[in-house]
């Protein structure tokens, strides 16, 4: 079972989405929060597999809550579920540590799919979000940081870009899961990015895939 914490200040949204998700055979919404502060407390106390995070909430917003959770628990997997696509929401949320970004206009089945993919180690972004990030990166000076990657690191980066999980990469390359994690850590450091999502965007931006 994938254990989920759902933070949203709209009770009807929580009730509807939680009911659908908990009806899935592999997902359980074990806790809910109606503001960012409560989301931080429950996340650090319960350590759920996935956190669904609304961005606009009373007292503490989702961006600040995401930032505080990641600072104290870097392994947390946070999926933003919001109505907003404006720059001042998208970039701060991803920079704070969210690994996936979904819109509330998405079907409940799509959110369930995003939960499964994120749990497996992938990053799920709305097409509009990917487009925004790529356009922003085009405005930056060209930097071929990938030239620093070893052949093995480049191979793993391309598999990450294909949506492979860490375990999937380990199985395909016949190497240990721990080795994959070390390589990915080195890739992020060399590309000067913070997470897998930014590494994938880098790969697409530089025509590596």
Topology:
Elements lengths: L1 E6 L3 H12 L4 E7 L2 H11 L3 E4 L8 H11 L5 E5 L4 H10 L3 E4 L4 H12 L7 H12 L12 H11 L4 H8 L3 H15 L4 H10 L4
Parallel strand pairs: 1-2, 1-3, 3-4, 4-5
Radius of gyration: 17 Å
Number of helices: 10
Low-confidence stretches: none
Main sheet properties: 5 strands, parallel
Instruction: Fill in the CATH topology of the largest domain.
Output: Rossmann fold
- Number-wise, the strands total 5
Strand order of the largest sheet: 2-1-3-4-5
CATH superfamily of the largest domain: Response regulator
Please tell me the overall pLDDT: 90
For the record, give the distance between the C-alpha atoms at the N and C termini, rounded to a whole number: 33 Å
Structural class call reads alpha/beta
CATH architectural grouping of the largest domain: 3-Layer(aba) Sandwich
Helix amount, in percent? 40-55%
Described by the principal axes of the CA atoms, the overall outline is: globular
- Order of helix and strand elements from N to C terminus: EHEHEHEHEHHHHHH
Residue share in β-strands:
5-15%
Number of domains: 2
- Report the top-level CATH class of the largest domain: Alpha Beta
How would you describe the overall organization of this protein?
The protein has helices at about 10-20, 35-45, 60-70, 85-95, 110-120, 125-140, 150-160, 165-175, 175-190, 195-205, and strands at about 1-5, 25-35, 50-55, 80, 100-105. By secondary structure, it is α/β, with parallel strands linked by helices. About 55% of the residues lie in helices and about 10% in strands. The model has no long low-confidence stretch (mean pLDDT about 90). The protein has ten helices and five strands, in the order βαβαβαβαβαααααα. It has two domains: about 1-135, Response regulator (Rossmann fold, 3-Layer(aba) Sandwich); about 140-205, Orthogonal Bundle (Arc Repressor Mutant, subunit A), CATH 1.10.10. A five-stranded parallel beta sheet has the order 2-1-3-4-5, sandwiched between helices. GO terms for molecular function: DNA binding. Keywords: DNA-binding, Phosphoprotein, Transcription, Transcription regulation. One of its GO terms (biological process) is regulation of DNA-templated transcription. This is DNA-binding response regulator.
